[in-house]
Design goal:
Elements lengths: L1 H12 L3 H9 L3 E7 L18 H9 L1 E7 L5 H10 L3 H4 L24 H6 L4 E5 L22 E4 L31 E3 L2 E4 L7 H15 L5 E6 L21 H22 L6 E7 L26 H4 E7 L7 E3 L3 E2 L1 H11 L15 H5 L9 E5 L2 E7 L2 E7 L9 E10 L15 H17 L18
Parallel strand pairs: 1-7, 1-8, 2-10, 2-11, 3-4, 3-7
Antiparallel strand pairs: 2-9, 4-5, 5-6, 8-9, 12-13, 13-14, 14-15
Length: 471
Amino acid sequence: MKLLSLFSWLLAAGIGFPTVQAAEATRPNIVIIFADDLGYGDLGCYGHPTIRTPNLDRMAAEGMRFTEFYSAAEVCTPSRAALLTGRYPIRSGMCHDQFRVLRPRSLGQLPDNEITLAEALKAKGYATGCIGKWHLGVPQFNPGGHPRKHGFDFYFGLPHSNDMDPTPVAPKGAGKLAEQRAEWWNAPLYRDDQIIERPADQTTLTRRYTDEAVKFIQRNKTKPFFLYFPHTFPHTPLFASKDFAGKSPRGIYGDVVEELDASVGKVLDTLRAEKLAENTLVFFTSDNGPWLIMNQQGGSAGLLREGKGSTWEGGMRVPGIAWWPGKIKPTVQRTLACTMDLFTTSLKLAGADVPGDRPIDGLDIRPLLFGTGPVSREAYFYYRGTRLMAARSGDFKAHYMTQAAYGQPKHEEHTPPLLFNLRVDPSETHNVATNHSAVLGQIAQVVEKHKAALQPAPSQLVEVQPVAEKK
């Protein structure tokens, strides 16, 4: 009792606080900025000739730019589930072969038994915030799908994609049209548990998201924080603020990406101004490849084949930029890494335990980030819904099934599999299967090992709230 009383007195007197603060200072802040449908070739630092991205270019020059960074899925709901859980989405049930993403009236959600990055970091004393597009549950029809039920202290954003609430006046295929009108869309904007605006003014979304991100950083600057910042754009329909609309040579798509770039700049500037930069890992990436069927309203996969919705490289290889002044040296990183790695790496940085009661697919890539050694990955698996379409081991990728992102109703099976050497042929143009039967055999063994240990979860993407009949 005396020891307890003494300890209580020390805390009350503030004598114990410096030790606590010193411990907290060793735990870095973590910021993950997640663009929506941004293609591999859409940034200046990845070769785009007309979209101007000076802030992301500087971020890449000061940090690490990955050339072989992957999303874990080719569409948004499963890719977001994978990032936040460190697991292929088939393990959590956040994928389906027909219903590719959660819909506006979906009753499914990221299962409660999944451990999110926010939950794991919150348990280590982190403040946690989600600002932007969620798409892992629709709170209006299932309160359990709200971000605040999955480890986030604060939420500001849209529950799903910005095209999922068309109004009755929206023309068919409105998202593809070059000119967008605000009255066509009825997306709800949440602050925590409340809808504060419907329809959300999408011309101001990026700016308001950024303002909220800056305030979150400033509000939590005295303790470790995790900011998950999944932007709504450049998913169609495309809207930019008056400061950016009509300014890019690339048209409205360029306007939107250039405003995202400015948003990244403000986040980094805030970290510098608050003297937090040297204790903060910032990672920028995209949820999947570009939505090519949107024509000029969609982005570019650069030299990669296909785009969003496909397991060709253009559907899942995305920009990846890591920034941490004083910790990450300016480097171009050509080792394969993925969004699931952010889960494991962030937990390791925070001194948290990686869950040991379930398979975790993300690897600890701190050796890559800090230049201390290699990271060994036996294989990387490309899923489209519940189907394992392809697998990569080393430089070689075997396609067991292929399907164009859109317009091809059924997948095509390949026996023998198609084989591409991605280090030589990232565009997947030259099938070298006949020359590398041994490689195909090695990849097949890894695939069988993966399948044998896999326990798919029931899909969360099927059940929806029925529309009430009019009387």
